[in-house]
Specification:
Elements (H helix, E strand, L loop, with lengths): L1 E4 L9 E2 L1 H10 L3 E6 L7 E2 L8 E2 L5 E5 L4
Antiparallel strand pairs: 1-6, 2-5, 3-4, 3-6
Length: 69
């Protein structure tokens, strides 16, 4: 498991839902399982609302399962 910066998956202030972020992770051969917003203390794993679009920040991070680099 690794923490990845949001700019690997989206552009600054882009509106996407979590499913769309997961698809972009899949294109990178990664499994996106959660995120932590820039102003949050904790990550949200397996978010319950995956369909609502939101404006992500480049300072947000995603929790992903990936092979070691």
């Amino acid at each position: 498991m690794q923490i990845r910066p949001a700019d690997l998956y989206l552009r600054e202030d882009e509106e996407l839902n979590f499913f769309e972020v997961m698809l972009r992770g899949r294109q990178r051969k990664e499994i996106v399982i959660g995120y932590r917003l820039v102003d949050a203390e904790r990550a949200i794993i397996n978010p319950p609302d995956k369909v609502s679009r939101r404006r992500w920040s480049a300072k947000d991070v995603f929790v992903v399962i990936t092979e070691k680099e």
